[in-house]
Write a structure and sequence with these properties.
mainly alpha; 1 helix; rod-shaped
C-alpha cells in the first residue's frame, strides 16, 4: 500500500508539473502576441506622427503665403 501511495504521489507531482508547463507555454504565447501587437501599434503610431508632422509643415506653409 505504501508503494502505491508513493506512485500516486509521483503521478500527482508529474501532473502538477505538466499543468504548470502548459500554463507557462500559454503565458509565453500571450506575451509573444502582445509584443507583436505592440510592435504593430508602435509602427502605426510612428507613421501617424510622421503624417502629423508633414501636415503641420503644410499648414505652416499655408499661413506664410
Amino acid at each position: 500500500m505504501n508503494m502505491f501511495s508513493k506512485e500516486l504521489a509521483q503521478l500527482d507531482k508529474n501532473t502538477v508539473q505538466y499543468m504548470i508547463d502548459e500554463m507557462q507555454n500559454e503565458i509565453d504565447d500571450m506575451k509573444r502576441q502582445m509584443e507583436e501587437k505592440d510592435d504593430t501599434m508602435n509602427s502605426i503610431i510612428s507613421e501617424k506622427d510622421q503624417e502629423i508632422a508633414l501636415l503641420k509643415e503644410k499648414l505652416k506653409n499655408l499661413k506664410v503665403e
